[in-house]
Amino acid sequence: MNTDRSPRIATRLLAVLPIAAVAFSLAACSAPERPSAKEVAAGYHKIVEEAGQTAMYPGDMIECLAEAMVKSEISEQDLANIADGKDLQTSKDSQKLLVKVVSEAAPSCKPAQ
């Protein structure tokens, strides 16, 4: 009977544990998941209300703009900030991109008058 095998198996299993722990911790530190258009719209409503600009966004305009934001190259972190009701971008370039996306989408998002 080969009793030599059990310690090797245990050693291999113990070697796997730190690798799994590192993989799990890296997953926990990764960028946030991309919010849905519904989540972004809810946060954007909050931002607009706090700024006293609700009259500038009639009907479902915010929902339409939120869809454009989610489909764009705006980062997950910037979208997560908007979804949380924070008008906070990760950089000046991110802020420019957000303004560009909203400006380009606004004409097609305005309700017919």
Overview of the molecule:
The chain is elongated and about 80 Å long. The protein is mainly alpha-helical. The model has no long low-confidence stretch (mean pLDDT 84). The termini are far apart. 66% of the residues lie in helices and 0% in strands.
Give the topology, please.
Layout: H1 5-28, H2 37-50, H3 61-71, H4 76-83, H5 92-109
Helix pairs in contact: 2-3, 2-4, 3-5
Q: What would the average pLDDT be, to the nearest integer?
A: 84
Distance between the termini: 87 Å
Uncertain segments are none
Q: Got a strand count?
A: 0
The radius of gyration is 23 Å
Number of helices: 5
Give, in order, the helices and strands.
HHHHH
The percent range for helix content is 55-70%
Class from helix and strand fractions = mainly alpha
Major sheet characteristics: none
User: What's the overall geometry?
Assistant: elongated
What fraction of residues sit in β-strands? under 5%
What is shown here, in short?
The chain has helices at 5-28, 37-50, 61-71, 76-83, 92-109. With 113 residues, it is an all-alpha fold. The longest helix is centred in the first third of the chain and has 24 residues, at 5-28.
Features of this protein?
113 residues; elongated
